[in-house]
Specification:
Layout lengths: L4 H18 L7 E6 L5 E6 L2 H4 L6 H11 L9 E7 L3 H10 L3 E6 L25 E4 L3 H12 L31 H8 L4 H6 L14 H4 L2 H5 L4 H5 L4 H8 L4 E2 L5 E2 L6 E3 L4 E3 L1
Parallel strand pairs: 3-4, 4-5
Antiparallel strand pairs: 1-2, 1-3, 6-7, 8-9
Helix pairs in contact: 1-5
Length: 276
């Protein structure tokens, strides 16, 4: 049986970086760059487009620049990118030119996805660089929910802030779970025992087949405090902050279905805390 606990732990860390970016009014798209052999986190990135007013400051670019600025001798073919949302076409092209070793993402990017949802930049045989391995669906529903918490916020900098509708994200269900993989590719990454997830679209991937999860079972306060660069850039990580993060998300049951019966909260940028 394929145990995906490690990937879930790393994606949970990635989502927490995105959450901390959300608290400074950034789009909560985030990533980790890790050494494939040692699993050491070498760099982190989070969208910086709102603060910088630069549309190219995507999480992937920030993480790679940080790594290059470290003067480490990096072979990008030996690193893994954990990213909360499927890389856009621009970032997918950038990653392919780098020669990235592997990309694991949370949810698909329905509008701009460059790893198969819109264009298969990662695997297109007509491009000059070597293709790279990419697969998604790890903490997919949580990645979507984090984005929803951003999109319900109002732009306080606008002359006349647009009043957002459909803010009832605590009761909103998730779209069908689809994968940019062939059946054989899915089995290679997730195991044959998870084929019902691939075939039905109704279930979420879980770390261990037949066992549900909640985020607070996957990562701890210490795990999050140990993320490099995070506290110095986005503030202290403490128990209150971590519990507020956990409160944003539904649990997933043993059958792989989202537990919509759980009471969750949503982030309110104006009050800088959560609402029931």
């Amino acid at each position: 049986m394929t145990d995906l606990t490690f990937l879930f732990q790393e994606m949970a860390k990635c989502l927490f970086v995105g959450y901390r970016a959300l608290t400074v009014n950034e789009t909560p798209v985030s990533c980790l760059i890790e050494d494939i052999e040692t699993n050491e986190i070498l760099s982190i990135g989070y969208n910086y487009t709102n603060i910088s007013l630069n549309g190219t400051k995507h999480a992937e670019f920030i993480a790679v620049k940080r790594l290059r600025d470290s003067n480490l001798n990096i072979d990008f073919g030996k690193v893994r990118l954990i990213v909360s949302v499927e890389p856009c076409i621009m970032c997918a092209s950038f990653l392919r030119q780098l020669g990235i070793g592997e990309v694991v993402y949370g949810c698909s990017n329905d509008r701009f996805g460059g790893n198969g949802t819109v264009l298969p930049i990662h695997s297109d045989p007509n491009l000059p660089q070597e293709p790279y391995c990419s697969y998604g669906g790890i903490l997919r529903s949580e990645a979507i929910q984090l984005l929803r918490n951003f999109y319900i916020q109002e732009n306080e900098s606008a002359p006349q802030p647009k009043i957002k509708k459909n803010k009832d994200i605590e009761n909103k269900k998730f779209p069908t779970n689809k994968f940019n993989l062939t059946k054989d590719q899915f089995v290679e990454h997730y195991g044959k025992e998870r084929l019902p997830v691939y075939e039905s679209g109704e279930y979420e991937i879980t770390p261990i087949v037949g066992k549900g999860y909640s985020l607070n079972e996957i990562i701890s306060l210490k795990d999050l405090k140990d993320i490099p660069f995070l506290e110095e850039e986005l503030g202290e990580v403490n128990e209150e902050v971590v519990n507020e993060f956990f409160d944003l998300f539904f649990d997933v049951g043993e059958d792989g279905r989202v537990n919509y019966g759980k009471t969750i909260r949503k982030y309110n940028a104006k009050k800088r805390h959560h609402e029931e």
